[in-house]
Amino acid sequence: MDNTSSTLVITGGGLVGMAAALMFHNRFDSVRVCEKRSNPLSDSNYSNRSLQLVISARGWRTLDLLGLTDKVKARTLQLKGRYKHETDGSEHPEPYSRDGQVICCVSRETLYKLLTAEVLNLDNTTVHFDTEVTGVDTDNCTYFTDREDTPAAESYDFMIGSDGVYSIVSRQLNGESGINRVLETNSYREIRINHAPWAADGFHYWYSDRMMIGSFPVFEGGFSLFMVLERADIPLILEDPESDYLETRFPEIVGLIPDARERFLEAADGVLGSVTCEQWHAGNHTVILGDAAHGILPFMGQGLNTGLEDLYVLNDFLSEDGLKSGSSLSEFAALRRPQADAIRDISMEQFRYLTGKMSNEERLVRKEVDRHLELNNQPGVYASCAFTTEPFSDISRRFRQLADKYKMQE
Q: Domain coordinates of the chain in residue numbers?
């Protein structure tokens, strides 16, 4: 590839897409980012979910390459663990690490605006906001958008598809049969409160037999609360004004937020699920990353970090002249797919644990595994994922071997 005349196109200018532009802009003569949302820096009506994101060791490794570590850390809160809240009002701290290590929490909107501002300062990069990629022809390295002021088809030399779980690029590479979407029957709803008597150095959570509420402190102030419950339970718990489920199972929440039921009912209904794609690339010129390749449940806080790790690994495959001689995107996909599969499974287990979906036997096994790791001075699954860059597949394998051992002893 002749770098002096090459074009990189990034479909989807979300967090991973903007980070990709910063990572690879100097490898190409020009970079185009197509993002269907408006510019968050100039649109006065722009708003994003107040969702809080966790940045762990994998994410920091990539942000360090981008030279953004200090800027991002200045906008984060340091969290040392979880606080499990009981119905009687008591709370139990659960440190993330025996060594006192912390994770960093930042709002999605804050991080997105920071990355956007950095990309807009690049001389060779153009961000087309309010522009959706509607089709990709990977055989001819062309793509189509809904912009009226562009040709019917535009060409590219290298394309990164980072356009989310319903990615156009993923669909082109896989068809519908090659994309496995597993949607949970749960609703995800989020609200924001300005004040709460909870420590701002941890994640707080409450759960019952039918639902979970979690809360992250927000750097800009207050707390972000999310509720996860079965959609079938919405009429009983949220819509029925005679229901006392929240009052009896979550008295602390209702005591602090008397209109919690109404606010959660009015909040946007989010979908939880995972996405697995069979094909990650076309030739050596088109590749998918982040949620476009491997959407996962958010309960380990590794969705963004896994996408940033995709960029970190891809960085070793691209040179000043494009793909390095002797390298292939097949090799890249072979490295990343097992890690995406592993963190998908790990996140599912964490989801089941935090939402009370595990059986008593599974909880006992997990408790024995955690005890074994502690006695042997080894990090647990969460600590391994958050504070190391050890392959997710190795972490998953180690945990499952121990779990199988203790299952046999039951």
A: 3-48+62-73+108-180+273-347, 358-409
Q: Which residues pair with 188 in a beta bridge?
A: 228, 270
* pLDDT score of 4: 54
Which residue's structure tokens are 């990309």? 119
User: Per the CATH hierarchy, to which homologous superfamily does domain 3-48+62-73+108-180+273-347 belong?
Assistant: FAD/NAD(P)-binding domain (3.50.50.60)
pLDDT classification of 44: cutoffs 50, 70, 90: low
State how far the Cα of 46 lies from the Cα of 309, in Å rounded to an integer.
28
What tokens were used for 217?
A: 């402190």
pLDDT at 274 over 70: yes
Q: Which amino acid is it at 392?
A: F
Stretch 325-349: mean pLDDT: 95
Mapping DSSP to helix (H, G, I), strand (E, B) and coil, where does residue 234 land?
helix
Could you give the CA distance from residue 303 to residue 327 in angstroms, rounded to a whole number?
A: 26
Token pair recorded at residue 165: 């779980």
* Whether 215 contacts 205, CB under 8 Å: yes
Rounded-to-10 torsion of CA 82, 96, 216, 237:
-40
- Range with lowest mean pLDDT among 44-48, 140-144, 320-324, 384-388: 44-48
Number of CB atoms found within 10 A of residue 321's CB: 13
- Residue ranges of alpha helices (H) inside 175-297 are 234, 245-249, 251-256, 260-266, 291-294
